[in-house]
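lol forgot to send this yesterday, sorry. struct tokens for the thing we talked abt
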């Protein structure tokens, strides 16, 4: 099989496309023929050794896949060869085959395509956990989303709308904001053209957002948090900007506001049953048309490094996927 291999920490250009032996399942495992693999910002950090999770070298990057089971271990009776499945794994996604535990698999709905299936676990799982479990967003509340045109951002828009909230989407270009509008955003803010605090004040009649969904960090975090409503919840999702903000904590005191950490990867390990319940709800919403992953580009396996570079350069709207077959 062919796979993308990281054998030294560094930029995506250092990744290698290699021919590797076919995989064999061990106890409790299955081997999947990967038809699509989602690309996410953590993948950019992992190959550079800059993420919270640091696998041993060498490894195959990529954490979310959709495909068809080609082999199962003798002790696995929950899945069979030929089953179409979704898997979220620590590594291994950017290859033609993937080794995964049977417990990590989600059956694909019959009418779902592989690209969509590979685009729903991390972004929608993260956003659902953030908005529902951590922020407890309620119908009628205002939710401000920074970096709203990215994968987790568009997912957050759709989840917020499904819960009955009013969505204020912030992005860096009018083209990205157009995608936010298509996915349900009520108010659009271009923070390269507008003063963010003034725009938030106008969008909320001076009250401020009840929930801030922040996967960006950098200078936008403090500007948004200074605008938060009394009792608001600021979701710390990530730092796509590259800079971890240093917030004056007196702001939380003055607004009676909460800074709420969101680490979906740890949540999936600490509460796998809760995560599976969340994924079942997301799949129901998908079938009902309440959510629809936006896949802006597809890459061949030998273009995986370019996919990661595009993600790092923030050129991506919604999701991108690698197609190994």
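and heres what i got for the seq, position by position
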């Amino acid at each position: 099989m062919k796979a993308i291999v990281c054998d030294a920490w560094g930029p995506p250009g250092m990744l290698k496309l290699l021919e590797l032996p076919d995989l064999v399942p061990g106890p409790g495992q299955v081997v999947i023929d990967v038809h699509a693999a989602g690309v996410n910002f953590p993948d950019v950090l992992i190959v550079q050794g800059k993420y919270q999770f640091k696998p041993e070298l060498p490894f195959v990057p990529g954490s979310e896949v959709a495909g068809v089971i080609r082999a199962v271990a003798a002790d696995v009776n929950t899945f069979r060869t030929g089953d179409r499945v979704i898997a979220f794994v620590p590594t291994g996604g950017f290859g033609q085959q993937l080794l995964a535990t049977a417990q990590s698999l989600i059956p694909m709905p019959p009418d779902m395509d592989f690209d969509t299936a590979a685009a729903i676990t991390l972004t929608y799982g993260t956003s659902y956990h953030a908005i529902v479990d951590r922020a407890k967003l309620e119908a009628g509340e205002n939710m401000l989303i920074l970096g709203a045109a990215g994968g987790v951002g568009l997912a957050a828009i759709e989840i917020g709308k499904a819960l009955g909230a009013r969505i204020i989407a912030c992005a860096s270009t009018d083209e990205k904001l157009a995608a936010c509008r298509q996915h349900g955003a009520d108010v659009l803010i271009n923070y390269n053209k507008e003063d963010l605090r003034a725009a938030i004040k106008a969008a909320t009649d001076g009250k401020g957002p009840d929930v801030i969904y922040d996967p960006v960090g950098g200078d936008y975090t403090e500007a948004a948090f200074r605008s938060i409503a009394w009792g608001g919840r600021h979701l710390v999702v990530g730092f796509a900007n590259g800079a971890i903000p240093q917030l004056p904590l007196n702001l939380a005191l003055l607004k009676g506001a909460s800074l709420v950490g969101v680490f979906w990867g740890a949540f999936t390990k600490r509460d796998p049953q809760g995560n599976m319940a969340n994924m079942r709800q997301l799949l129901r919403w998908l079938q009902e048309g309440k959510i629809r992953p936006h896949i802006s580009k597809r890459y061949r396996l030998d273009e995986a490094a370019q996919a990661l570079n595009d993600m790092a350069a923030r050129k991506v709207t919604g999701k991108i996927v690698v197609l190994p077959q």
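The mean pLDDT is 95. anyway ping me if u want another try
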